[in-house]
Write a structure and sequence with these properties.
The chain is of the alpha/beta class. It contains ten helices and 18 strands. The relative contact order is 0.14.
Length: 301
């Protein structure tokens, strides 16, 4: 199993279908699990996908429409029922606190796990860990909505030929990495920057600055494409993207792997989303999301 992968729990927009559950996505990232937009039925989809409550460290809600949040009640209660042994943090738009409170306490249950609430009120950094920085950017939707972005800190890639040229080997490599210099040789002379991986999650929105900021340079972008291009007017009216709009934004941002999801039930042919994404100019790896699929974060180049 990849240490960094997306588990797709549901892909339906507004209402579920026979083949698509409401939204739900889990990002596995170096031993942490970040759940995005748990819609109705997420707890059962977790069971089907082999995802446990113990896997969850954060829950990120983009906005409080039902297909993105009605599963919160069950997920939170399952976290407590299973006595998850670590704290869990929830991020959501601050303007929707009343909705989060109602879902968190929708029915009676025993709280056994600390659930920290960190509402999002503006663009910026939400959390810093050793393996990622979590950021939020405001989107354009009829209710307040935020997208989320993970950025791994840049590292260093040691260059064997340069190390050999300077006679550095074995334990001395570790000393050089730790101290930044060894016998007059600096770390910069024998290594190069290894760009950190980037992931973004963009749900219900029109095209806006937030979409482009979140997508910029992503290795894996998960983005809604509720409508096909012929329904662009409907998309704008309801605060959504078309397949072509999402794909053009990804192409402009240099995205390596694009995952389209959040499909309207009006469409029966998923292949049309792929055709329109390619026609819009996206040439990278492309996935049309299906429930219960797993998508690895691309390996570093």
């Amino acid at each position: 199993m990849s240490a960094r992968e997306l588990v797709v729990l549901g892909t339906a927009s507004q209402v579920p279908t026979r083949h698509r559950n409401h939204n739900g996505y889990l990002l596995r990232w170096d031993g942490e699990g970040i759940m995005f937009d748990p819609g109705e039925g997420t707890q059962r989809q977790m069971l089907r996908a082999g995802v446990a409550a113990h896997d969850l460290n954060r829950i990120c809600v983009t906005h409080f429409h039902g297909d993105h949040s009605l599963g919160l009640a069950g997920v939170i209660q399952r976290i407590n029922l299973d006595r998850v042994p670590h704290p869990v943090t929830a991020h959501y738009p601050a303007s929707g606190r009343r909705f989060f409170d109602r879902l968190r306490y929708a029915t009676a249950y025993r709280e056994t796990v600390p659930l920290a609430e960190e509402p999002v009120a503006a663009d910026g950094v939400l959390a810093r860990t050793s393996s990622y920085v979590l950021e939020a950017r405001k989107l354009s939707h009829p209710v307040e909505s935020y997208g989320y972005r993970l950025v791994e800190p840049d590292g260093r890639r040691m260059l064997p030929e340069r190390l050999a040229a300077h006679g550095i080997a074995g334990p001395d490599v570790g000393r050089l990495q730790r101290d930044g210099a060894l016998n007059g040789v600096t770390l910069d002379e024998v290594s190069e920057v290894r760009r950190g991986q980037r992931f973004a999650f963009v749900m219900d929105t029109r095209l806006c600055d937030g979409v482009h900021a979140l997508a910029e340079g992503c290795d894996l972008l998960v983005i809604e494409s509720t409508f096909l291009d012929e329904d662009v007017r409907l998309a704008a009216d309801h605060g959504h993207l078309t397949a072509g709009q999402a794909a053009r934004a990804a192409a402009d941002a240099g995205v390596r792997h694009l995952v389209l999801t959040h499909f309207s039930q009006r469409y029966s042919d998923p292949a049309e989303f792929e055709r329109q994404a390619r026609a819009a100019g996206f040439a990278g790896e492309l996935t049309i999301a299906r429930d219960l699929m797993r998508v690895p974060v691309p390996k570093r180049t």
